[in-house]
Amino acid sequence: MPKNKFSFIFNNLNLKNKTILDAATGAGRATYRWAEQIDKQGGHSRIISVDKFDLPGENEKEWISSIKQSLGEYEKYVDIKKGDIFNLHFLADNSIDIINCDNTIVFLNKEPLQIMNALKEFKRILKPEGILVIVSEDTFDDLTEKNQTQWKRWNLSKAIYNLNGKTWSTEPKIKNVMDALNIIGFKKQDSLRLNAIKNTSNYKTIVKEWKKIMNIEIQKIPFSHNFKTNLKEEVKKIYEKVLKEKYIMTFSYWILKAVLKDR
Ligand SMILES: C[S@@+](CC[C@H](N)C(=O)[O-])C[C@H]1O[C@@H](n2cnc3c(N)ncnc32)[C@H](O)[C@@H]1O
């Protein structure tokens, strides 16, 4: 069985003449890999890549144009659309062959049970013989000397959001997601758990964007000026440390392939 993320995802997956939902686009890394695979398989598939494109301090137009640019020749397979995963009203019932939700459910799970609404929306738009692929980061509670910077980045983000009464991310366990999917009519087809990997390709862009978002959020915190200055200093230290270490850690994560029970 393939042990690498994309070889596991694309193993036995027919991508010819399919309509694929990519939820959500983010930096477009998964979008690129799916478009590349469509090209390899030589069909006429299309990817509808959806994102809210509303991260603090981000310019929607520039964001979309940088994704288009990084897609290069594969842009022809992709329609980028602004939308909310909780309400995909522009997609008809039973209209999608494959849904790919890569590193996004941690942001859809901010309130208990909230994720159920996204999973139900996935079920509504999926064709009866369709397939749902979810990739998600796992909880990251293993703090060691070696991964300190990465641990700090993730947990400081959570703390800063909490101080504003908001939630940065909540990593659901694969078992809980599968239980929820079961309740709404899915069954597991396959799954894989992978160890943490280092992202050495676009860590600079990601950490720069992270620093910008965190500084915007710190500004809004209803605490003293001194406290905010110290938090900004911590963010700066982490930012510099990541640039020095030259990677961003994708914590251990899992991949789940699910299909409808009554297919
Ligand atoms: C980590 S990124 C996704 C990574 C991306 N799949 C990739 O491979 O590069 C998470 C994205 O989810 C988007 N997002 C979060 N909640 C959303 C929602 N309810 N609807 C649409 N997009 C959402 C954010 O705007 C962000 O761009």
Specify Rg, calculated over alpha carbons: 19 Å
**Terminal CA distance:** 24 Å
The top-level CATH class of the largest domain is Alpha Beta
CATH topology category name of the largest domain: Rossmann fold
The CATH superfamily name of the largest domain is Vaccinia Virus protein VP39
Q: List the bound ligands.
A: S-adenosylmethionine
Query: What is the global morphology?
Result: globular
- Could you say which structural class the secondary elements and strand pairing correspond to? alpha/beta
Description:
This protein is an alpha/beta fold and 263 residues long. It folds into 2 domains: 1-138 and 173-195 and 252-263, 3-Layer(aba) Sandwich (Rossmann fold); 140-169 and 201-246, no CATH class. It has 9 helices and 9 strands. The protein has helices at 5-10, 29-41, 60-71, 105-108, 115-125, 148-163, 174-183, 203-220, 225-245; strands spanning 19-23, 46-51, 78-82, 96-102, 126-137, 186-194, 197-199, 248-250, 253-260. The strands form 2 sheets. The chain has a 7-stranded mixed β-sheet, sandwiched between helices. The protein has a two-stranded antiparallel ribbon with strand order 7-8. Helix 3 links the parallel strand 2 and strand 3 (78-82). Helix 6 runs antiparallel to helix 9 (225-245). The longest helix is centred in the C-terminal third of the chain and has 21 residues, at 225-245. The chain is globular and about 60 Å long. The protein starts with a helix and ends with a strand. The structure holds S-adenosylmethionine. S-adenosylmethionine (SAM) binds next to helix 2, strand 2 and helix 4.
